[in-house]
From TrEMBL:
Belongs to the diacylglycerol/lipid kinase family. Pfam families: DAGK_cat, YegS_C. This is Sphingosine kinase. It comes from Streptomyces alfalfae. It comes from the Bacteria. One of its GO terms (molecular function) is kinase activity.
Length: 296
């Protein structure tokens, strides 16, 4: 492995924390003897182009400095290659880093963890989800949760988990159950009225909402959480339980574990790693061991 490491930085992540986090992360790596090169794109397409160029040039690792959006762009560059990915999580949600057991909003500690992993060759392969040509590491959201995600992304205040709590309350006023057709592994079809269908490679979204609490990033399967037809009062009681994962025991919640799933519903947009993928139907598949990560 080459000693040159590439920091892939989103300077706007976490209301500017991305730019501030680059220096302590780089310092931790340089202190361990690595040469650090920083990549900052003018926009998302330019950032992805630069990240891919770094991977193609043989960088020893690509380190995403930012939030889940930054990690998501980095995944497009490293998935399917042998270049390891590290994460210095300083964004709003940071759910990919949480799923990997990495420090959150502590760039010095995250930089130390990456440096320690590189020095000790603590690299492991984990699964990714894929929709068409797009990779995702956490959760594909559709329904009530994707509407919440959309609203939360538009909100400039507050930051972190509270932003999504407020977005939940705002969306509750208007959302109604949606008729879904869910096809599992190409043949097992479920037609249900549901508030949401979440497809998890990782366990959480929205800054720690453990919607797919039992998801395992090494089992070659996706966890599909279906929250069925329920009134606002029930949803208001059940949805906060996603922070502990105890919602999975509720009678209105069903979990499936396929390798491939196609959720279809009218007027619903799918979001993965916090970014819109497009209108349903979408076909998501689990790709085992798709990315090497620098994580415990």
């Amino acid at each position: 492995m080459t000693s040159e490491i590439t920091l892939f930085v989103n300077t706007t992540a976490g209301r500017g924390r991305g730019a501030q986090a680059a220096q302590p992360a780089a310092s931790a790596l340089r202190a361990r003897g690595f040469s650090v090169r920083t990549v900052i794109g003018e926009d998302a397409p330019d950032a992805l182009r630069r990240a891919r160029e770094a991977v193609a040039a043989g960088t020893g690792a690509l380190i995403a400095v930012g939030g889940d959006g930054t990690a998501g762009v980095a995944l497009q560059a490293v998935a399917g290659t042998r270049t390891p990915l590290g994460v210095v999580a300083v964004g709003t949600g940071n759910d990919f880093a949480r799923a990997l057991g990495l420090p959150v909003r502590d760039p010095a500690a995250a930089g130390e963890a990456v440096a320690e992993a590189l020095k000790g060759a603590h690299v492991r392969d984990v699964d990714l989800g894929r929709v068409g040509g797009t990779w995702f590491g956490t959760v594909l959201a559709s329904g009530f949760d994707s509407r919440v995600n959309d609203r939360g992304n538009r909100m400039r205040w507050p930051a972190g988990r509270l932003k999504y709590d407020l977005a939940i309350l705002a969306e509750l006023a208007a959302f109604r159950p949606v008729p879904y057709r869910i096809t599992l592994d190409g043949g097992d079809v479920h037609e249900v009225e549901a508030m949401l269908v979440a497809v998890g490679n990782g366990t959480s979204y929205g800054g720690g909402m453990r919607i797919c609490a039992d998801a395992d990033m090494t089992d070659g399967l996706l966890d599909v959480t279906v929250v069925g037809d329920c009134g606002r009062a029930t949803l208001l009681r059940v949805f906060p339980r996603v922070y502990t994962g105890t919602h999975l025991d509720h009678p209105k919640v069903t979990v499936h574990r396929p390798a491939r799933v196609e959720p279809a519903a009218p007027g619903i947009t799918g979001y993965a790693d916090g970014k819109p993928l497009g209108a349903l139907p979408l076909t998501a598949e689990c790709v085992p061991g798709a990315v090497r990560v620098l994580a415990p």
